[in-house]
Amino acid sequence: MxxxxxxxxxxxxxxxxxxxxxxxxxxxxxxxxxxxxxxxxGEVYSLLIDGRSHEVRVSPAGSGLEITIxxxxxxxxxxxxxxxxxxxxxxxxxRGAGETIVAPMPGLVVAVRVRPGEKVAAGQPVAIVExxxxxxELSARQGGVVxxxxxxxxxxxxxxxxxxxxxxxx
Length: 170
Fold this sequence. Notes:
The protein is mainly beta. The chain contains 2 helices and 16 strands. It is 7% helix and 59% strand. A hairpin with a 5-residue loop joins strand 4 and strand 5.
């Protein structure tokens, strides 16, 4: 599965796949294979790379994640390639073009906070998706009017699945 990842001010296309028990990550021509296991508390993972064990904590933060490893916390934003493509089109770059809020990870919609026709301010929460026992509040990046609500509460969603569409302010 491919994603766009923003980490420390850099954007990169990353591919994740499973090979047996290993999680394989390819980024910028480099390949990393690791044993990646969730520990009982659900937010901490054990990452084994080249025989060395690393403890990694993954926590929701705004519209992205925070990853803590070796005492350093890094903000990470993960986007589906389709979202990246939509943002790159001239239409999307224009003011008032609108926005599609997508699921940043697979999960379950636990709340939809808006209805079609409703005005939404930048930063306003529009939906909550639960993933890995954590609730992730998804917010509009820009103001606008809700043109479509594409999911219902209780619905399962996949990475990059559109949830809410906004029309931009005129």
